[in-house]
Amino acid sequence: MHRIVVEPPKPGVRLIEDDEPIPGPDELLIETLEVGIDGTDLEIARGEYGAAPKGEPFLTLGHEALGRVLEAPDDSAIRRGELVTPTVRRGCDLCLPCKSGQSDFCFTGLYRERGINGLHGFNSERWMETEEYLVPVESGLREVAVLTEPLSVVVKALDQLLKIQERLPWKETGDLAEKKSLVAGSGSLGLLATFLLRVEGAEVLTMDRQADDAVKSQLIERLGAHHLNAREVDPLTLARDFDGFDIIVEATGAPQIPFHLLPGLGDNGIMVLLGVPGKKMSIEVDAALIVREMVLSNQVVFGTVNSNASHFRRAHGDLTKILARYPTEIRQFISHRQSWREFEVVFGGQRKDVIKDVLVWAE
Ligand SMILES: [Zn+2]
Prior knowledge:
By secondary structure, the chain is α/β, with parallel strands linked by helices. It is 27% helix and 27% strand. The protein has helices spanning 39-45, 96-99, 148-164, 188-199, 215-222, 235-241, 257-261, 287-296, 309-325, 327-333, 343-346, and strands at 2-7, 10-17, 27-37, 59-60, 64-71, 83-86, 89-90, 112-114, 118-119, 126-130, 134-137, 180-184, 203-208, 226-229, 245-250, 265-273, 300-303, 336-339, 357-360. Helix 8 links the parallel strand 16 (265-273) and strand 17. The longest helix is centred in the middle third of the chain and has 17 residues, at 148-164. The radius of gyration is 21 Å and the shape is globular. It starts with a strand and ends with a strand. The structure holds zinc ion.
């Protein structure tokens, strides 16, 4: 059986052949259909992040997967032939969030993550998993279900955001309709946030450093959102025109961006941080201005990471809505589908016009 591996912390990705997995009594055997590639995979491939399972030299890459059940225990609620999307994080079994099925809030830091940290990922022909970490998906979502994992991270972020904004009960806070929103970054999370905010009826500006005629910029405009090239337009001037944003979604991972954007947040506004900065960076900010505005305007800034099975289930519902409203655009979002045998192209460095890479393992 083939799998795509790295040898952390060494850079480089390669293909190895390995024995077939033999499922334990509680485990299902899954055939991989598709695996999405994201920035974390590329970081691991560059040797900047990631850890192999204890005692093993290699880590199988890939944490955004769609699979089909080949074998299931007799008492499993998930049956042979069903499509499944696996969650990523496996809890520490020590803290209350992990014991409650919410390892995305783990506070010991002793969790492991498939394809990232201490557990093999899904870029192999077959893999095994227990039922609790598999979320079945309807066959109608077959074409886009590989997006479940990244979308679930956005689902969790917007869910947390709405929960916090319940502090404003007079403001129709239960939904995102007509909320003035700024999304910073047009990576997978930024674009999926744009899709979801638009589906929920928000007014959206999505900001990146791409030209207006770039592939991503055009996709953003087709969603009825506005594309903003941060090289050309000052977002704060725009925020003033917008009378302050209700919501800012930070998905660039550039650590200075939240500080630059905070003055654009409106009264009672909320900023969610999704991007994880890498390199160390110091900047000069007008701290008094930022703190004063946050206090006098009742603003909230919060961070969020990962997702759990409940967010995967909701992501399937949201994918159904997105597919109904933006059928062409969500297919265009998966800009590059290629055989797993072409993995070196995907990990080989910058390519033009890539929105989302997906490796195809089986039809
Ligand atoms: Zn925990």
